[in-house]
Each structure stands twice: as C-alpha cells, then as structure tokens.
UniProtKB/TrEMBL annotation, chain A:
Annotated source species: Kribbella caucasensis
InterPro entries in the cross-refs: AAA+_ATPase, ABC_transporter-like_ATP-bd, ABC_transporter-like_CS, ABC_transporter_ATP-binding, P-loop_NTPase
Intracellular or extracellular location(s): Cell membrane
Principal location class: membrane
GO molecular function: ATP binding; ATP hydrolysis activity
Name this protein carries in UniProt: ABC-2 type transport system ATP-binding protein
GO cellular component: plasma membrane
UniProtKB/TrEMBL annotation, chain B:
Listed GO MF terms: ABC-type transporter activity
PROSITE patterns found in the cross-reference section: ABC_TM2
Record has Hydrolase as a keyword: no
The keyword Transmembrane helix is assigned to this record: yes
TM segment ranges: 27-49, 61-82, 103-130, 136-158, 226-244
Record's keyword terms, sorted: Antibiotic resistance, Cell membrane, Membrane, Transmembrane, Transmembrane helix, Transport
GO biological process, one term: response to antibiotic
Entry membrane topology: Multi-pass membrane protein
Listed name of the protein: Transport permease protein
A single Gene Ontology CC term: ATP-binding cassette (ABC) transporter complex
Subcellular location as annotated: Cell membrane; Membrane
Species this protein is from: Kribbella caucasensis
Amino acid sequence: MQGLEKSFKQLKVLRGVDIDVARGSIFALLGSNGAGKTTVVKILSTLLKADTGTARVNGFDVVTQAADVRESISLTGQFAAVDEILSGRENLVLVARLRHLEDPGTIADDLLRRFSLTEAGSRRVATYSGGMRRRLDIAMSLIGSPPVVFLDEPTTGLDPEARLEVWQAVKELAQGGTTVLLTTQYLDEAEQLADRIAILHEGRIIVNGTLDELKQLLPPAEVEYVEKQPTLEDVFLTLVGARTDSARTDGEQR
Amino acid sequence: MNKHFLGDTTVLTGRSLRHIARSPDTIITTAIMPIAFMLLFVYVFGGAIQTGSDKYVNYLLPGILLITIASGISYTAFRLFLDLQGGIFERFQSMPIARSSVLWAHVLTSLVANLISLVVVVLVALLMGFRSGAGVLGWLAVAGILVLFTLALTWIAVIPGLTAKSVDGASAFAYPLIFLPFISSAFVPTDTMPGPVRAFAEHQPVTSIVNAVRDLFTQQPVDSDIWTALAWCVGILVVAYLFANVSYRRKIS
Ligand SMILES: Nc1ncnc2c1ncn2[C@@H]1O[C@H](COP(=O)(O)OP(=O)(O)O)[C@@H](O)[C@H]1O
Ligand SMILES: [Mg+2]
C-alpha cells in the first residue's frame, strides 16, 4: 500500500502510510488506541475508501478490483462479528454458504474441532464467553482458506489463556502459507508473532522492520545478571492448570 | 446482476428468518397492538360509530391490517440496525457476496414476518365476527395490495435502519406511520370530519388503500380507489427503494 491518506471531517487519521507485506508472513501493525489501525484494515478490506493513495491486496487494487480483493481476504474485525442468535455451528455454515463452498456442514464441524468448540457448537453464541466468541470469529474468517487474513486487535479484551490460543491459531495460519496482517496495541504480541513490525503513529509509519532491526534502533543493552522471576502470567497459567479441552469449555460457560 | 445474488439472498434470508423463528415474540408484539385497537374500537367505541356497514369489525379490519404492517416494519429497521452495530454487516461486506443481498434478505424477511402477523390478526378478527363473502380472487387481490404496501413501508424502514444512531431512532420512525390510519377512513367515514382534516384524510394514501381493501372484502365494485391505492403503493415503493439504495451505497463506500 502506498501513500494512504484518510480524514474523517477535519481529523487527519492517516497522513501517508506505506507498507509492504511479504506473502506468507505475519506483519504486525502496532499503534496505540486511535492511531488509525482499524482505518488501515478497513481500507484494505474494501470497507472504506482512502482519500488518496493506492493499495493492492493479493495483487488486486482495493478500489478498482474490490470484488477480487474480497475473494482473497477475510477480516476479523476489532469486535467479534458473530451472529448471537445463531449457534456457533450455524455461524460457520452461514459463512461457508456465503463463500459458495461445497459441504458447509463438514467445514463447520472441522473448524469447531480445531477451535475446541465442538461441545458448544450447538449452543447459541449469546451464551459464549469472550474467548469462545473470539475463537469462533477467527474460525469464521478461516473458512475458504483465503490467502490473506486481517486480524484487527484479535486479543484485546481476552484473558491470558484465550490470548495464547489465538496466538497459536495465528501461528498455524502463517505456517499454512497464509499472509497475516495483524494490528495490536500490545508490544509482546507483536514480538511473539510477527516476522515484521511497523509502528503507526500520528498517521505515519515511523518504523518498519524485523524485531531485531527494531532492537538495533536502541543503544546496545548492557549485560546484567538478574534472577528470573516468574511473571504474573506464568503464575496465573500455572494456577489455572492444565488447559485441556473440557476444562477450557466448561470454565468458559458463564 | 451478480451471479450469486439469488443464492446469497436465499442464505441470508434463511438467517434472518431463523432470528424470527427464535424470537417469535416479535410476531406477537407486532400483532398485539392492532388487536388491542380492534378490541377497543369494536367493543368500546364501535357501538357509537355510524359506518353504514352491518358489522363494525367488517368496516374496521382493513385499517387494522395497515396498522399491523406499520408496526411490523419497525422490526425490520431494528434488525438491520443490530446487524450494523454488531459488526456482522461489515463481515458480510468484506466477503465475496452479492452486496445487495444483504438488504434484500431483510426485505424478504420483513415480508414473511408481516404476512404471519397479518394472518394472526385476521384470525382474531374472524373470532370477533368478521365475515367476508369475497372469493379466492378477492382475497388474492387483498393479499396483493397488502404485499405491495408491506414492501413500500419496508423500503422506508431500511433507511432509518441504515442511518440511525440509536436503537430508538431506528424504530421511532414507525410511529407516524402507525397513526396515519387514524386520520383516514379506517375507523370512521371521512364525511363527518371538519374541512381541512377531511381534505387531508381523503387525499392521504391510507384512505384509498383502506377503501379498496374494504370494497374487495364486501364485494363492492372497487372503482377508482384501487388505482389510487396501487399508485400510492408503487410510488412510495419506488421512491423509498431509491432513497434506501442511496443510503446503502453511502454506507458501504
Ligand atoms: N467513522 C469515523 N468517523 C469519524 N472519526 C473516525 C471514524 N472512524 C475512526 N475515526 C477516528 O479516527 C481515529 C483512528 O481510529 P481507528 O482507526 O479506529 O484507530 P485504532 O484502530 O488504531 O484504535 C480515531 O481518532 C477515531 O476517533
Ligand atoms: Mg481499532
């Protein structure tokens, strides 16, 4: 994407954003709240039009070849876009039908298994926890195996366990050759997942590189010896215990 | 037209019909107010209203049916609004589907839901003594007018559904439509109304539609009312459809 600019009324949200994402890689767009991450994702997924600049996804222009772009992508928006009244399985079948795929039922069952939602599959989504909803949301985005996946703040608002599950799913996606553009406000998330990281700040990309390249921007760290303390996350995960399928789904039936 | 239009519309209509099947209360709520009006007017005011019909419920039913539709379509705006709020609308828009299917699915669902409510109201009217000698053709003609009227009001409802900022805003537009039949020939003949009110009543769409439906039910010749009624329905339908599509295009680009 090149020279993207977008304003809402007087508010200049994007002032010239250039990014290239290599096929089959995970790219993290890092930025604080209100930086314009969602705006970038919406432009790339043909939901918004940029004021100036061009963007191509999977080789297709987002404005003149919007239909081809939509064939190539899937979007997991910032807020889980699931149908609350339908069951988890019905949500998956719905998306499979809309993607005009054969045998939507089998596709749905496979994804329910993959995302540990088999038991909850026949329940209405309104009864799901936040983590389950997010997993379903991501599962819906994987239907039809689009070559490019946008994940807009996929772990915001999730508990640490659900977060790790989402990370796992993202890693598997990239291993399968899917290109992932992920936005996040969390440094550790970008660090964990991304092949390349760009920081969006005040409407521009201020840095763009691999984690190592980004680290070299800072003066070399002095070597210090510190006793490794368990992080709160380690403690939490140890206390909560084994994350088996049944424990997870039962624990989340709130 | 997109090659997936029919398939996608079918799938999405199936989805919204499932919503209705899982909250049948929307059908009941739609039917309750018109039924309450019908009870009130037939059993409380009806004795004092001179209409020239043998039974007041026979006179009243056409107007009640229009009120049913007007209250039913507010749910269409409501459901559309919820889709936009919940993000599922954006998911659909980012998928390779025929884009107009999203609206058509809501419109067809509205039609089905309203027809069910209308059947409920007619059944209650039959219990209250409503009788019509109209044959199959007469009933089909009535159904045709009501379908057209439903489509016209549904496309109006799509506009606030797409543009409203709050749930209340999405459904409040229906109130004037629900009360329009009160200033028409739906409840009382227009000739006792004072001049300006009468002029309004006789020239607004509800009166011609009510009169046409009433003539069909009582097997009177329908004369010019039916053409006026059809012209209103088609006119409103076309204008509302155009405006709804402008709002839609603005929303998705
Ligand atoms: N539809 C809109 N109308 C007006 N302002 C908007 C709209 N969408 C986003 N904004 C503004 O644009 C800025 C960037 O928003 P967003 O892209 O959602 O940021 P992020 O996803 O990084 O938190 C924010 O200040 C937000 O208030
Ligand atoms: Mg955002």
